[in-house]
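Narrative of activities, Objective 1.

The group set out to show that a structural description can be obtained from nothing but a protein's sequence at a throughput compatible with the screening campaign. Below is one input-output pair from the validation batch, recorded exactly as produced.
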Amino acid sequence: MLIALLAIVAVVVIYYFSVNNREVALRKESDAQRGKIETVHDTMWKTLKQEAGVTEQYREAFEKIYPELISGRYSGDKDPLLKMITESNPEFDTSLYKHLMQSIDVQRAQFQQSQERMLDIIREHSTLLETIPAKWFLGSRPQIQYTVISSTLSKETMRTGIDDTVDLFK
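Output recorded for this entry:
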């Protein structure tokens, strides 16, 4: 009888330590994830702003030099239109824009994934706090707080339940 009672107490103590350690690990993971979200967000915006700046500088430089190249190249010719058609002229390279769009996709996806991981941590932590028997040991522990980083449009859509923004260019 005493051995059975000691075994039950040992199981309860071991379970308490296990549940307590899991709760601490989730709280620490959420703190680390918060830092990761910040660094991903910071990297995202710095990358996109710098790539957009390079793309804009290229466009401005091309706009500046192209008229000078063309006017100097064909001035004094008898048939400049025919020469312009038959020759290879400088072309505006759109690959920088394609690269920028790819970067936007990649950076936004990384940011979304880091926020989704945070929400998974919170879900797991809340489940631990609210399910029996863990609740008996952890019931007084606070929930992990986190505000999802989102747009005004998304916040308003969630508040109203209406999403009728169909024109992407407005």
